[in-house]
């Protein structure tokens, strides 16, 4: 069974430009290898038909609708940015039409919950491994105050919101489960961290391999220069005009290549350190999974509802615990 995923992040003014660049793909990402630039044209915004200036729109919404007469604090939360998604397999089983209806239905939930006038953007990304939507809610209260605290000041408010979101999506015809809580949440959280660490190590290794390939190319060019010099020193066949031009060209750019090599060596060392650290993190994640698993087993009898206990015992999380450790922690 797939889950309805709803995650919220509070954004202050300095972070708004960054989320704009990410959402609208204004620059090629150097940190997210999952983005397929060849599919970015498939992304769409359910609020804005064309790219916008996020700060301009959000600040205009605040200026027009906040009526307190007081200046907005520099450290005020201006946007609650929600991530809406499920797992990749769930979307794989949906048609294009149903996938779009999924995000339209999710957007309707936010409109109903917070008002269309308070939604700055609803960007759907289809150029990553799992389709997802970023929804920007400007937290303006009914009495004209900018206050994220009113909406999300208590943990229970977000929990209740996730419940309502799940109910809404199920009513719209999407077969999804609500997120997990209590002891099961610990196991799921540890599993997520383990998968995250695994992916981070893969990214570090990819960077390492790309760096080595780059260094090898520079090394090959250096050897080509050495071959030309060897011909000259040994007094063999006279240097060809093309060889001469190549030598001059490489000589002129020698400093550049040297700097590139030094930078790449630093990048390589950094990647190797990252891999070493990530392996430590993964080992820590493994211990946490074992700890949470034992904790769940220990506290099963103390759970109030027998059905909940039986469901947990039969869950894939417990049954596949050993498989998870073998697959992601080796």
Structure description:
This protein folds into 2 domains: 5-171, BirA Bifunctional Protein, domain 2, CATH 3.30.930; 182-329. α7 crosses α8 and α7 packs antiparallel against α9. The protein is an alpha+beta fold. It is built from 12 helices and 5 strands. It has a 5-stranded antiparallel sheet with strand order 1-3-5-4-2, sandwiched between helices. It is 61% helix and 10% strand. The chain has helices at 13-23, 54-65, 88-92, 96-114, 148-152, 155-171, 182-234, 241-252, 254-299, 306-314, 316-319, 321-329; strands spanning 5-12, 44-45, 77-85, 119-125, 132-137.
CATH top level assignment of the largest domain = Alpha Beta
Secondary structure: number of strands: 5
By secondary-structure content and strand pairing, the structural class works out as: alpha+beta
CATH architecture label of the largest domain: 2-Layer Sandwich
How many domains? Answer: 2
Total number of helices: 12
Regions with pLDDT < 50 over 5+ consecutive residues?
181-187, 234-238
The helix fraction, in percent, is 55-70%
Largest sheet: 5 strands, antiparallel
Give the amount of beta strand, in percent: 5-15%
Q: What order do the strands of the largest sheet run in, or round the barrel if closed?
A: 1-3-5-4-2
